[in-house]
Structure formats: C-alpha cells, structure tokens
Amino acid sequence: MHRTYELICQLAPDVALKRIESLLSEEGVKYASTKTSITTTSAPIVLFGIQPKLYSQKNWVGLNPFPFVSGVELKIIQEETGLVKVTVRVNQGRGLLWVAFWTTCALLAASAMPEPGAAILLLGVTTSAWLLIVSFFGGHLIKKELAGSLDVLL
C-alpha cells in the first residue's frame, strides 16, 4: 500500500535534496540519491521500546516515523514558476504488518472473552492500530517531518 504527498517549497532543488538527505540520515534511514530523487534502501527496524532508533526530536510526538514504513521515494522537480515540487511516495507495507500483529494479539485475547466484548476489543485494537501506525506514523508524521525540513509553502 502506498500513499503519495506533494510538497511545494521555495528552496533550490539541490538545497531541498541536501535537507532531505540530512533528515533521513538523522533518523537512521539509509538511502540512494540522484540529482532529482531519493529512494530509501533501508528503514530502521525497531522491535523494542528501548531502542534509540525509535525516538526522535524532530516532531512533537518524540517518535521516529520511519521504522513504521517500508520505504519512501522522493522526486524533486523544478517548476516553471521557480518553486520546487517534492513528490513523496510512502510504502506503508511495514505498517500493515504491525496492524496484523496487533490484530492477531487482540484476536488471541478476544478468544477468551464473551462475544460482545471480544468483538469490541478486536474492532477497537484493529482500528486504533490502523489509525495510529498506518495513517498517523506512516503518513501524516512523515509528511510533517519532510515539510518541516523543507520550509514548505503548501
């Protein structure tokens, strides 16, 4: 599953590229870049809450959003107006695996409960995991961090 965002800034393309590379390096993401694009090759994998790669000072949540996604592709295009458009494509596959993990845990817990409570638990955990991991960490928070590093206009 992929989600695409467009960010517009007034920076020169090479400056925008350097700022994105700096952000990715600070967050522990490995990447390959050309003059007009960046593709992540390895996002940090975090299994325990004590791992420093999980935490970040770049956002108000204090968590690094990149361990929750499989990868990010960025294309930087200079428009005729002089503005730079950055197209961000986020691969949310890893987030879906985390949702499946939490749904499985909820299913195991729900199997020992009466039906109405079990259904509420399963629905609540699955919905919460989807909204938090896939939509918030794997989408909104990555967009906000990139926008913050680029001084985005729109």
What does this entry look like structurally?
With 154 residues, this protein is of the alpha+beta class. The chain has a single domain (2-150), classed as Kinase associated domain 1, KA1 (TATA-Binding Protein). Helices cover 44% and strands 22% of the residues. The chain has helices at residues 13-26, 93-110, 115-150, and strands at 2-9, 30-33, 37-42, 71-78, 84-91. It is elongated and about 60 Å long.
Helical percentage: 40-55%
CATH superfamily: Kinase associated domain 1, KA1
Radius of gyration equals 18 Å
String of helices and strands: EHEEEEHH
Shape annotation: elongated
- What is the architecture at the second tier of CATH? 2-Layer Sandwich
- The average pLDDT is 92
Unreliable stretches (pLDDT < 50, length at least 5) are none
Outline the biggest β-sheet. 5 strands, antiparallel
N- to C-terminal distance:
24 Å
> Helix segment count?
3
Number of strands: 5
> How many domain modules?
1
Spatial order of the strands forming the largest sheet: 1-5-4-3-2
CATH topology: TATA-Binding Protein
CATH level-1 class: Alpha Beta
Question: Could you write a compact summary of the structure shown?
Answer:
This protein is an alpha+beta fold and 154 residues long. It contains three helices and five strands; from the N terminus they run βαββββαα.
List the helices and strands and how they pair.
Elements: E1 2-9, H1 13-26, E2 30-33, E3 37-42, E4 71-78, E5 84-91, H2 93-110, H3 115-150
Antiparallel strand pairs: 1-5, 2-3, 3-4, 4-5
Helix pairs in contact: 1-3, 2-3
